[in-house]
Amino acid sequence: MRSSSSPARTRLAALVAGAATVGALLSGAAAHAADSPLRDLGAAKGKIVGTAVTGSKLTGTYGDVAAAQFSSLTPGNAMKWGSVEPSQGVFDWTEADQIVAFAQAHGQQVRGHTLVWHNQNPNWLTGGSWTPDRLSTLLRNHIDTEVGRYKGRIAAWDVVNEAFNEDGTYRPTLWYQGLGADYIANALTWARAADPAAKLYINDYNVEGVNAKSTALYDLVRSLKARGVPIDGVGLQAHLVLGQVPSTLQQNIQRFADLGVDVAITELDVRMTLPPDSAKLARQKADYQAVTAACVAVTRCVNLTVWGFTDSDSWVESTFPGEGAATPYDANYAPKPAYHGIAEALGGATTPPPTGACTAAYAVGSQWNTGFTGNVTISCSGAALSSWKATWTYGAGQRITQAWNADCTQSGATVTCVNAPYNGSVPDGGSVSFGFNASWSGSNPAPTVTLG
Ligand code: XIL
Prior knowledge:
By secondary structure, the protein is α/β, with parallel strands linked by helices.
């Protein structure tokens, strides 16, 4: 057969062969597309699944994913005091309004974040010199104004944020120093008056496991309840480091639930040293899965919110130099293993174990005026096969006439080749090849081979 190929055709064939090497990754990608959205999986488990968002980004793919996957939105910055009242008496509700409207349009809850904090306050507030009475009035007015504006439209407010030091003592904020520890009880009471339907939370970080800080929070919640102060929930921020999900997370959630309050995971992210690699992403999946499973295990854990759903909208890289990749979607909105960790813990389809290291490469060997020889090489690295099936579709009427080292059939344009009895096994680091003769006319474009 090769005798019929002219030198010119041989050169052409070499060019075609070079261009025709098409790799096919054997992966579980097709299985992912059928997964239910996180918000539906969460609903089936009685959980709200949320994300922090940036209002200006809620269009295009970012908006589509936020709407499709999540049943709760938390403004990442838009409701903080410094955002809503940059100058005293001058309010800017633009972004907060936008997020609330988006949530309403998509059947989503809103978590209000946050009313009383020591960060991201306006300069006029932090730079002022206030008597305790005046400071108390400023705080009450702030709560009345903001909670009142969104009355009936906020499912839960993070009323007080980050009130404790790591050792469980009160953080010496402008509120604590100016008003004493009762600023917390007062803020909760004022928030309740401004919107009786909103669930009122105290929120903090490094309180995910049982430790001195979470125990101080626990003692506070218990005493607030004993005093009749309105407190409905505790927010565990959960800004976690890769591989460091506290082993006492579920126990800690349970002890708050047993006090008679709801628990929310309010700001989940799992940061890693950059750059990410497959081992780190697999670890991150396990971490997201563990946090979600702990919430699923406790009925009163009502909301699991991630602090940004895409690596392109995360606070981590600018806050922790050298760390990042902390969210469930990459910067191009592709779901990462972490996404599947959440989905699986919510009862979604299990991602197949990674099989991505076996590939198939198609190449044209020689080609003459009516026919050609072809070759497919299946190579494995970090994986192995005990049998294989390679399929492809010919786009220009090519037809297999004979094959060796595989059993090939063609139906219409679809070619299916399965291993011969003696070469089904492809070891890790090894490869097998099979060959065929085929006819062509007009053109002979290379197909993409799928391994299955
Ligand atoms: C972060 C925002 O995500 C950033 O955009 C901003 O620059 C700083 O604040 N704990 C909280 C959140 O309660 O409000 C913080 O959000 C992250 C830590």
